[in-house]
Amino acid sequence: MSDQTLYFIQSEFAKTDMILNQLWQMMSLNDSIVLFADAVLFAQDQRLAAYPYLYILKQDAELNPIPLPSHIQQLNYDDLANLVLHFTRCISLK
User: Fold this and answer.
1) pTM score, two decimals?
2) What domains does the chain contain, in order, with CATH numbers?
3) How far is the CA of 20 from the CAs of 40, 43, 85, in angstroms?
């Protein structure tokens, strides 16, 4: 298991900007982020560009009309379950 943190960003669109500002202050570059639902519309946000471990569910990626940056990995639900098993600490931001 990893000592890094897995962050779930599950905020509605209007709150996601504030959540990303909080996230910027809390996390380290070795942590991982999964964007869900409306938060996927922020996939191109510059604050996320520096993080190498950024994920989006394939189903949620369809919400984003703009092609995803190449460093974002798309997951199905099985992949997400396996990812979670590698972390001892998961934080959900809504």
Assistant:
1) 0.90
2) 2-93 (3.40.1260.10)
3) 12, 11, 24
